[in-house]
Amino acid sequence: MNLPKTDKKRIVIIGGGFAGISLAKKLKKLDAQVVMIDKHNYHTFQPLLYQVSTGGLEPDSIAYPIRKILKRLRNFHFRWATVERVDPESSELYTDIGKIRYDYLVIATGTRTNFFGNSAIETYAMPMKNVPQSLNIRSYMLQNFEKADDCEDLAERMALLNFAIIGGGPTGVELAGAIAELKKHVFPKDYRHLNIDEMEIHLFEGGERVLPSMSVQASKRAKQFLEDFGVYIHLNTHVSDYDGSYLTMKDGSSMRTKNFIWTAGVTGAALDGLAPEALMGQRNRYRVNEFNQVLGYEQIFAIGDIAYMETTAYPNGHPQMAQPAIQQGELLSQNLRRILNKEPMQRFKYHNKGEMATIGRNRAVVDLPKLSFAGFFAWFIWMFVHLMSLVGFRNRVVVFFNWAYNYINYDKAARLIVRPYLPKREKGNIKPLK
Ligand SMILES: Cc1cc2nc3c(=O)[nH]c(=O)nc-3n(C[C@H](O)[C@H](O)[C@H](O)COP(=O)(O)OP(=O)(O)OC[C@H]3O[C@@H](n4cnc5c(N)ncnc54)[C@H](O)[C@@H]3O)c2cc1C
Question: What does pTM read for this prediction?
Answer without folding.
Answer: 0.95
